[in-house]
Amino acid sequence: MSKVKAITTDAPTGGVVFGDFELPDPEHYSAKLKTIYSGICGTDRGMVAGSLSFAYNPEGYRQMVLGHEGLAQVLEIEKNNFGIKPGDYVVPIVRRPGKCVNCRMGRMDNCTDGNKHEAGVTGMHGFMRGYFYDTPENLVKVQDKGMFDVAVLAEPLKNVEKAFEVFDKVSERSIFFNDYGTYEDKKAVVIGTGSEAFLFSFFAKDYGFDTVLTNRHPIPDLKKGMVDMIGAEFYDYTMDMDKIAEGGIDLLIDTSGHPGTIFKFARKLNNNGIAILFGTNGKAPPTGVDGSDIDYIIEKNITLLGSVDGARNHYFMALEHLRKWRYVYGDRMKEFITKKISPSDIDIFTNKPENEIKTVIDWSRV
Amino acid sequence: MSKVKAITTDAPTGGVVFGDFELPDPEHYSAKLKTIYSGICGTDRGMVAGSLSFAYNPEGYRQMVLGHEGLAQVLEIEKNNFGIKPGDYVVPIVRRPGKCVNCRMGRMDNCTDGNKHEAGVTGMHGFMRGYFYDTPENLVKVQDKGMFDVAVLAEPLKNVEKAFEVFDKVSERSIFFNDYGTYEDKKAVVIGTGSEAFLFSFFAKDYGFDTVLTNRHPIPDLKKGMVDMIGAEFYDYTMDMDKIAEGGIDLLIDTSGHPGTIFKFARKLNNNGIAILFGTNGKAPPTGVDGSDIDYIIEKNITLLGSVDGARNHYFMALEHLRKWRYVYGDRMKEFITKKISPSDIDIFTNKPENEIKTVIDWSRV
Amino acid sequence: MSKVKAITTDAPTGGVVFGDFELPDPEHYSAKLKTIYSGICGTDRGMVAGSLSFAYNPEGYRQMVLGHEGLAQVLEIEKNNFGIKPGDYVVPIVRRPGKCVNCRMGRMDNCTDGNKHEAGVTGMHGFMRGYFYDTPENLVKVQDKGMFDVAVLAEPLKNVEKAFEVFDKVSERSIFFNDYGTYEDKKAVVIGTGSEAFLFSFFAKDYGFDTVLTNRHPIPDLKKGMVDMIGAEFYDYTMDMDKIAEGGIDLLIDTSGHPGTIFKFARKLNNNGIAILFGTNGKAPPTGVDGSDIDYIIEKNITLLGSVDGARNHYFMALEHLRKWRYVYGDRMKEFITKKISPSDIDIFTNKPENEIKTVIDWSRV
Amino acid sequence: MSKVKAITTDAPTGGVVFGDFELPDPEHYSAKLKTIYSGICGTDRGMVAGSLSFAYNPEGYRQMVLGHEGLAQVLEIEKNNFGIKPGDYVVPIVRRPGKCVNCRMGRMDNCTDGNKHEAGVTGMHGFMRGYFYDTPENLVKVQDKGMFDVAVLAEPLKNVEKAFEVFDKVSERSIFFNDYGTYEDKKAVVIGTGSEAFLFSFFAKDYGFDTVLTNRHPIPDLKKGMVDMIGAEFYDYTMDMDKIAEGGIDLLIDTSGHPGTIFKFARKLNNNGIAILFGTNGKAPPTGVDGSDIDYIIEKNITLLGSVDGARNHYFMALEHLRKWRYVYGDRMKEFITKKISPSDIDIFTNKPENEIKTVIDWSRV
């Protein structure tokens, strides 16, 4: 047994502790890693608040190390097919496969039987600790130094990569493109203005969509600046629904998890329109869906699709996209990280900073 | 101008008349057809009742000839690429293309801008008349004599063909198959027990699904016999929800258009599950959809897809499937046509016969 | 150890023996089957002739039981998810999975690393024996009695099902359909007039293709009658190349394995044309392929695809297709089986009957 | 009529002239553009040499303006859906649609009937002139200033984008990925070391492939440096075939058009391997393809696919990729442009500079 500095919770009861946590030393291991950054997201806060009933501690443990978004440096690693060497920076994969047909082909994000685990969430210790052990196939290499300050976004971005993979497939059910085979005059509307909403917007914009972010309130200047930077638009839907819906919506992306909002916008989808449901908010109140809503979905050949998680290739592609954006947008990409804190600042789990896009724990400040 | 025996309505106001209807004689035409059978479906009844607000008369007309399900015989036809000759039996296509990118490639079922027309429904005279004129690309040849008594089902079946085409595409978003690459132990649940529900069930069964039909009441013996014939099962969901949902649902097909029922069953979908929304009932009351429903759709990678209409290839494939079923199930396939009536029996539009699967107008009885 | 009547060879050396063969009795087994029919194909004859260098005996054996095409009856079987019960007729699957990513998902036909086995061909005893043991996931149920006389064709047909699955996928690289979204005026040319060529032709015709079979000699009346039955055409390409190539070829299917013939026809492919390479003839002489051939393939966006074997779902679908054809074409489908012989008639492996489509061993004549 | 400085040829006879060329002034036009750069490729040289028999002058002309690779600046433009304004830099699209089903949906790269035109190649004046007129849907906007020096590569890169789109589709015929759902230990081999070969290599590397470029001779330091920059490898296949083929090839990309080389490498493809045929060399000598080659393609489920041209979306994506590479690789991306010349330096069409990757005409030097 060894002691490691770690941030732990008791799932699904909640609570959060920073301190020495005792973990067994593996007899054999294929990779040892030092944690560099940990990102904090709504799931972490939900677990600390005790509101995520699906979370559970690893077998035999009364605490679970938190943390699923991260960047780590390789201390030791065995020879591997992924070109990862000691000293490299890597992003660890969150979800670990079970034995179903999807997991067996590396697509644990599409796990059929639910017997997968997620680091820091369901039955497996997370990455909010000084160091950890892992295997090469669960580590994705960061290509160059310029990205270390944004690579922690690879984990949230991998969800977007997977969602767009599903969009690519589903949109083949008809010709979704315009008359010239592009998305250039198609409209994507992203509900929400958090980190996932922005990553979805970056993506939609790269595809060529006229991209609109929306929320039920105005956004601070930092976020407005980021909207401008990528050439998107923002509207407060309580004020400007008409502008958002003008010409109809072709691709709707929800990061709010709020049924009332989702269906308000779904009723603006064009023929062959697609809605990606991504944001979850289990406690959101019900909205009424009636016969005419179902009619609308049918008569217009509309698809609503839920998408969760992402697999190794999505992390890989996320890092490629971050690489591009890091260079194209320059230091402004760093504005995504709105705050860096020390591991001991566990207040962060109960007090979300105003205007947060992404708060990151810097493990060098331990 | 010529007079033709026809069944007309005034869309969207409603009403129904049988009698001589005056239509201009075309100067040139590429095909002249004699109507053999016309099928009657809920859309026809909805138009007669005046409850389908989207229906409208052809430009310049105060009446519209009803009828979109049909079988006709070719009286005259120009040389064509589809091998259709005088004397052949054909099924006419309902929806006619506009100018959008989907219509331009023969996929008016996926019309982007809504500028298509539908025979007997939206701005175009239907097939409930003694004879009509058309063009070869809108006629699909019936392959053999044995099918004349069921070919009228090609029109409703083409919707099922298209819906399964969409299912095939969408299900590629993950491995939907079992461990052995088949659907054999996957469960399909079809909500409804009308003609479309049965056609969906025939299809699901051919795919290999364990297939369950369900409704909120028991079904008559004729229908029960048909369920047995294809090796499916039926359960009244007000009594046996547990049996229906045992092991979860992989493919849900709704023909009811009832949101409360749809979401009741959607909550039983397995991971990667797909729901095909097909049945419309614009006046169905609302059901509450809350945050946990959205959560469920996301965490399980679920897809809900609306599917309407079908294109030429779906008619073509529908006839191939009917051909198979006509032979495999023998004369029992004829039980699908629960009643044949004369064109003058227009009561049928306001009084649905008990235990109807499909009522057909026989134009030889004019 | 038990003795079973079997037809064996010594792979890859060759030879053929009918007689008692000694095999160990399994301690536990999940299914015991009685062989009803065995089909004979070119691979069997190639093994007997000693010309298939890739064939090998099962580990520890100096002989291998031949036979990969078959129909069997279940004597005993454990409870299973495929609805197979004692007394049922089944088709056993030929190829058995290794551990690669394709095999792990039931797609051993796409085996990545080559570590699969094939009954009666590579390292696994085949089905030309009185009885054998197997597991339910390797057995595919025959749906009804009417098919027992043609079900032995499921094995060769499953190859066609898989090849068309690949065609379906590959043809999505562009719009392969005509202006109306069908294959109705597209031309498929099938090189060869053996059993696989006919099964491909049945399939192409069902898709709607104008279908032409061709060979370098005329065909006997029985085969000509079958061509007419399905509405296809036959031309001797040494005489009527112009008629075959008129309007160009959209889908080329080769069952000859002869490079000179393949490229002769490939040069007639239309834009976006696809060639399915299926027939193998390892000893066929070379043909010259030059820069202009490569140019042609590129400028016309042509795809040449090899396709081998098929998986469980292809057997399943093959049986569905045979069921249809058995009924639609009636007893004429039985003409596919040109000869039934006794297991002791091992001459059949060295003397191919004139005008053979498919010769079948009837194990009731043992 | 107006005179414009232009580089012309007489297709298909050949020859090249720089000087004033008389063209009619359009009565109405939607965009007027000033040429900034023109790229020179093998097709231009082939036309000048008179070796491309498929090239032809615009109707009514005895000369054709050369040039299909280009960057232009918008002088005037009507309001459009693509966000293009006066002053913007754009890449003009080469191929212009005919009326076939693929052209009608903006996919003239997949033209079914061959009735398309290509600027500077088949029946349409090219972009090697001081200014030209065009329409917005044929112009693709360059996103930022940093790219002006490499945007001329968008035209050759769009071919690579399209080829990989086809690869993405075709590779779905089986699981092409490794056990973890990525390409990371899959091998791509690119035959050739010209500009297209490099663009393919950049792309393969971004996908995660172990990427090898090869040729029949060593390459100069500049090219070797570029290979190293992207983390690929180069081997002279006359010396190191073993190293290239070690572990087999998963994706083969040919830019040579040389059949002997193509089949030499095709015989090293792994199961489910894919060969993209891209390079054309109509005069390349024949190679012998025999029965065992066809066998190999079949038994291994191999696909050989020709791919030509690309559509609007491929230009769009090409610019996105160039944007990324321009920033990630910095000024080294400029090394792709090995020479900039004046329009009057028409020697370039008959004398290819040693070590050329891409030579570009700078129209400011007119």
From TrEMBL, chains A, B, C, D:
Alcohol dehydrogenase-like N-terminal domain span: 32-144
GO biological process per UniProt: galactose catabolic process via D-galactonate; non-phosphorylated glucose catabolic process; protein tetramerization
InterPro entries: ADH-like_N (IPR013154), Glu_dehyd_C (IPR031640), GroES-like_sf (IPR011032), NAD(P)-bd_dom_sf (IPR036291), Zn_alcohol_dh (IPR050129)
Gene Ontology MF terms in the entry: D-glucose binding; galactose 1-dehydrogenase (NADP+) activity; galactose binding; glucose 1-dehydrogenase [NAD(P)+] activity; metal ion binding; NADP+ binding
The Glucose dehydrogenase C-terminal domain, residue ranges: 149-362
Cofactor: Zn(2+)
Alphabetical UniProt keywords: Carbohydrate metabolism, Metal-binding, NAD, NADP, Nucleotide-binding, Oxidoreductase, Zinc
Coiled-coil zones: none
Subunit annotation: Homotetramer.
PANTHER family named among the record's database cross-references: L-THREONINE 3-DEHYDROGENASE
Name recorded for this polypeptide: Glucose 1-dehydrogenase
UniProt source species: Oxyplasma meridianum
